[in-house]
Write a structure and sequence with these properties.
about 475 residues, alpha/beta, Rossmann fold, UDP-N-acetylmuramoyl-L-alanine:D-glutamate ligase, Protein-Tyrosine Phosphatase, Chain A, 6-stranded mixed sheet, 16 helices, about 25% strand
């Protein structure tokens, strides 16, 4: 069993790290961490939890916090960014003989229950190239509302109405996103989700992403196949999107038993009669041909309604009643940075923000916007995330913005793993290609200039503004909103 008493989080402001830190503190560990001074969306939850965030990465931070404590009682968790295990803080922890693990490994460790000296925890892993944050948040929310008091670590800062997207619960369930990206760039290139051993595994879809790690969709699918075959517990339950071709190949190839959901009538849970009603939606669900009745969501988009089928399947499997599930689902109001209404401009134009950074996510979000506001002209501000992704998926990006009235492109937000940190010529080429689909597309080189441009040029009451991307583009939505 665990003997840890203190946990240090290097890169604590990342959404995956901050939620773990909040959970660890609620579980009774002494928590501290470090990060850059730049503002993050997680600042609020870390401050509310009264977690000490040290500025910058210094080996003295580690020595001062952990050095006087027996090494066996200390755990050091490192983000994959900021040089990962080669960061001077991680190296200092090694020198002090303190166990150093990645964020991905930490999620698996927490899910096992060992740090909490618990043997009753049952993991619920939510995997998928798209939608895993929303699905895992829906599960955390509905389980909480139904009285299960789950633990959870969801990849955003807040789940509306619950608060922080990390929580240590007294119930048996541990809900976590299962990310296919690598754990650490140099020393541990294990796909993060292979550290999890869930009893319940949901796979929402398989798509080509992270081109700096995977060469094609087939290689991504192989990682998912390993997850299912190697990590799902012996008595575990697999819940999958029955419409996804890559998932179907894995199921068929390995003769796997799974609960399926989707639009295909062959699936166990099937969505029917979807209707968009402003920012809400309604739809019917059938299970094995038997109608379960009408469900309502307080978040828009067909993709979200379909996502909820995975939640319905899971909740019914653990014994929740259909009417209770309907009520709990309708109360879900979404999460931070997932089609979030940030506010409105002084002229009354609504401002939304979304984390979408992959072409498929952009397409689905904009479809939801168009359905919710069919008479509005959509003004989108997009910030690509990583040059590797933008280059590999340029064709898909170009088509994903179809229907947008005006598109403003910010320079690409390079990640720590990008070999290229800034290249406006590439951004200009990207803009020229998008203009073939959205003629009214322009490159504006920084956030203050975008804010100024919109305030001066977007005044029609028929407009709606949506900021999109995985970098700091959300700051524009905040600056525009009153």
């Amino acid at each position: 069993m665990s003997s840890y008493k203190k946990i240090y989080f290097m890169g604590i402001k990342g959404v995956g790290m901050a939620t773990l830190a909040v959970l660890a503190q609620e579980a009774g560990f002494v928590v501290c961490g470090s990060d850059v001074e730049e503002r993050f969306i997680t600042d609020k939850i870390l401050k509310n939890a009264e977690i000490n965030v040290l500025k910058g990465f210094l080996k003295e931070n580690v020595t001062n916090f952990l050095g006087s404590t027996p090494s066996r009682e200390c755990l050091f968790i490192a983000t994959g960014a900021h040089n990962g295990f080669d960061n001077e803080e991680a190296l200092e922890a090694v020198r002090l003989n303190i166990k150093v693990i990645s964020q991905g490994e930490a999620v698996g460790l927490f899910m096992s229950g060992k740090p909490f000296e618990r043997v009753d925890m049952e993991g619920i892993s939510v995997a998928g190239s798209h939608g895993k944050t929303t699905v895992s948040a829906m599960i955390a929310f509905t389980l909480s509302k139904l009285g299960y008091d789950p633990s959870y670590t969801v990849g955003t800062s807040e789940i509306f109405q619950l608060g922080a997207a990390g929580h240590y619960g007294r119930g048996r369930f541990y809900v976590a996103e299962a990310d296919e990206y690598l754990a650490e760039g140099t020393h541990d290139r294990t796909p993060k989700f292979l550290y999890q051993s869930p009893k319940f595994l949901i796979i929402n879809n398989i798509d080509f992403d992270h081109p700096d790690f995977y060469k094609d969709k087939g290689e991504v699918a192989k990682a998912y196949e390993r997850f299912v075959l190697e990590k799902l517990t012996g008595d575990g339950l697999l819940i999958v999107n029955g419409d996804d071709e890559e998932i179907k190949k894995i199921i068929s190839k390995n003769a796997l038993s799974a609960i399926t959901y989707g639009t295909d009538e062959a699936s166990e849970f099937v969505i029917k009669d979807y209707k968009q009603e402003g920012l809400e939606s309604s739809f019917k669900v059938a299970r094995k041909g038997t109608e379960l009745g009408q469900f309502r969501l307080s978040v828009p988009g067909y993709h979200n309604a379909k996502n909820s089928l995975a939640v319905i399947a899971l909740l019914m499997e653990i014994g929740a009643g259909v009417e209770d599930i309907k009520q709990a689902l309708q109360g879900f109001l979404g999460t931070k940075r997932r089609f979030e209404r940030v506010g409105e401009m002084e002229n009354g134009i609504p401002v939304f923000d979304d984390y979408a950074h992959h072409p498929e996510e952009i397409r689905k979000t904009l479809e939801a916007v168009a359905s919710a506001y069919p008479t509005k002209k959509i003004v989108t501000v997009f910030q690509a995330h990583t040059f590797a992704r933008t280059q590999a998926l340029t064709g898909e990006f170009v088509s994903s913005f179809a229907g947008v009235s005006e598109l403003i492109i910010l320079p690409t937000f390079a990640s720590a793993r990008d070999s290229i940190k800034e290249d406006l010529d590439r951004d200009r080429e990207f803009v020229e290609k998008i203009r073939m689909v959205v003629p009214n597309t322009k490159l504006i080189e920084n956030i203050p200039s975008v804010v100024e441009y919109i305030k001066l040029n977007v005044s029609s009451p028929q407009a709606i503004i949506v900021t999109m991307g995985a970098g700091d583009v959300y700051k524009i939505a905040e600056k525009l909103s009153i």
